[in-house]
Amino acid sequence: MTAEPSISQPGEQTGDTAAGFVFALCAYGLWGVMPLYMKLVAHIPPAEVVAHRALWSVPVAGLVLLVLRRTSDIAAALRSPRTLLMAALTAGLISINWGIYVWAIASDRTVETALGYYINPLVAIVMGAVLLGEKLSRAQLAAVMLACLAVLVLTLESGGLPWVSLSLAFSFACYGFLRKTLPIGPSQGFFLEVVILSIPALCFVTWLALAGQSNFTFDQPVDIMLLILCGPVTAVPLILFAFGAKLLRYSTTGIMQYIAPTVITFIAVFVFGEPFGTARIVAFSLIWAALAIYSWSMLRQSRAASDRLPAP
Length: 312
Known about the structure:
Layout: H1 18-40, H2 46-68, H3 71-78, H4 81-106, H5 110-132, H6 138-158, H7 163-179, H8 186-210, H9 221-246, H10 250-256, H11 259-271, H12 278-308
Helix pairs in contact: 1-9, 1-11, 2-4, 2-8, 2-9, 3-8, 4-7, 4-8, 5-6, 5-7, 5-11, 5-12, 6-12, 10-12
């Protein structure tokens, strides 16, 4: 999976639309089945895959900006040192997220990636409390405690922290937190990030070619095609989500975000044949209970906010 654009804040969308639901469903569905694609490139070093994800995302994201006629936003961003610095920081975080994700899929640790994206919204809650001083409701506190208990179960079972899940969750949450500081929209921000990433990515890919270690060679046409397609595979769901989030309520996108890790879990267990023993069953049950409490709390807050709106 890859990082999503910032979810619209409460109050930006007062109702759901069919188009928004379709856009978001397609985005989360594509993120859910992405491990199937990443398995196809599992024989290629993760760093090379990440480099090509960045490189081939540039033309896709650029084409979207041309169609939407939003290229002026990029020109303004390029003249702002602060925007460039923040974009470089978020680009670095998303590249770390991509790298861990690609490596985990190739290393038969797909279940752990699903867990990471399940606990991501709970990590975001904790970050809001720690960094922004936001107060946790009783339901949110209960959800966070259940998530911590799940991590403890996995730690005791494996003899160490589930670092893949935690790294994905925290890098994704930090990316989302800092991404909101960029004064440009999701599509423009994504384009700026991959443009920044494309500079070191191009240098790395060139070095691999000169060293004779590249998989992007004419005698490997299948690998060339797979690496080029990493761009659309990365960019398309992000773009679909950006459109969907504008047409859906915050609470709706919040509930739908669990589609992707649920699909990933099924693929990991029933397609890749990864183990799902007692400890994982207990841990995932705790996480699902935590997410049910969190979702209930979020829906309750959304309904309360709707009730406070003046009647038309």
